Amino acid sequence: MLSEDLVKLTIAALEDIKAQDITTIDVREKTSITDFMVIASGTSSRHVKSLVDNVLEKVKEKGVRPIGSEGLDTGEWALLDLGDIVVHVMLPTARQFYDLERLWQGAEQSRAQHSPDLHPDHE
Known about the structure:
By secondary structure, the chain is an alpha+beta fold. The chain is 34% helix and 25% strand. It has helices at residues 3-16, 45-61, 92-98, 100-103, and strands at residues 20-26, 36-41, 68-70, 77-81, 85-90, 108-111.
């Protein structure tokens, strides 16, 4: 599966259960670790876990095997490594504190709702 298609699938899975403030960051020019970061917020620890679980379910249905995950036990910040994409789902307080968007500033950043090329509703 192409990185861009995996981003679309991930965003759709997050939107399915009401993730907030979904952001995609193209980091292909910044690191060889991954192509994209998808960052989203959940409203509670339970919501964060549900969001990551839904992404896991949807990508597995398409034959994508996750490399790993972290933080599912606490739900404050959960990370899902899909190889070409790293998904971060956080509570708003953790997201504000760690400020990954600013950390990766200079990388091409776009809000999912403003990125027709990566948004699943604009195929």
